[in-house]
Amino acid sequence: MPDITSQLNSAIINAFMNLWYLIPLFFVIAFFKSRYFKGKMGEAFVNSAINRKLDKTQYHLIKDATLPTPDGTTQVDHIIVSKFGIFVIETKNMKGWIFGGKNQKTWTQSIYKNKNKFQNPLHQNYKHIKTLENLLDLSNDKFHSIVVFIGDSTFKTKMPENVLSGGYTDYIKSKDTILFTDNEVEKVIEQIESDRYERGYKTNREHVKHLKQSHSKVRKEPSF
């Protein structure tokens, strides 16, 4: 009588030998579907629009800046420095219906019957701006907070004027009150570039580690 276990093992080995080339493909597909890749694609899309539609002599783009905070780091998708103020942009690459309000702690993404909660991006950007305020020793009125949604998403609740799915460069141009001199603009740029962490894998890894620790701390805090 044939050994069923041996036959089964042999079949598994043969299947693996015939399909081994699919393993790298699996990892490639997983990467392209990852939140990290979608986030970077969204940031690249916004960077491209800024470079094409805003005058580079008037608006200086600083992208993907990791900055020190008292409790670790914060990562800002896009900072635009101009004489009209400092524009701080948080990018979301999402699809589905988006529900949220200015003062809500979490917003909701709905795709058919699946609902996912995510942090209010305006609150995320608030932390970014507070970090820059402290870093540059500037008041809040020198900053403009903007949230940009990229992807096949639709707002299903009324959003604040600075939460946009398009037209964000026009929104930036609409802010035409001069807040800085040319010299002050240069000093702001120099300060941010001087204090930001060097871009690269190590910086991203340390920032992700900090985020995981922060989220773990929040989950462990008792609720009353």
Write up this protein:
By secondary structure, the chain is an alpha/beta fold. The protein has one domain (23-215). The chain is built from seven helices and nine strands. The protein has helices at residues 4-19, 22-32, 35-53, 121-136, 168-174, 182-195, 201-220, and strands at residues 60-69, 72-82, 85-93, 96-99, 106-111, 114-119, 143-150, 153-155, 163-164. The strands form two sheets. The chain has a five-stranded mixed β-sheet, with helices on both faces. A hairpin with a 6-residue loop joins strand 4 (96-99) and strand 5 (106-111). It is globular. The relative contact order is 0.14. Residues 25-34 and 200-224 have low confidence and may be disordered.
Keywords, separated by commas or semicolons:
alpha/beta, single chain, 224 residues
Mean pLDDT: 80
Q: What proportion strand?
A: 25-35%
Give the CA-CA distance, first to last residue: 67 Å
Helix content: 40-55%
Structural class: alpha/beta
Describe the main β-sheet briefly.
5 strands, mixed
Question: Uncertain segments of ≥5 residues (pLDDT<50)?
Answer: 25-34, 200-224
The sequence of SSEs as H and E is HHHEEEEEEHEEEHHH
Adjacency order of strands in the biggest sheet: 1-2-3-7-9
Count helical runs.
7
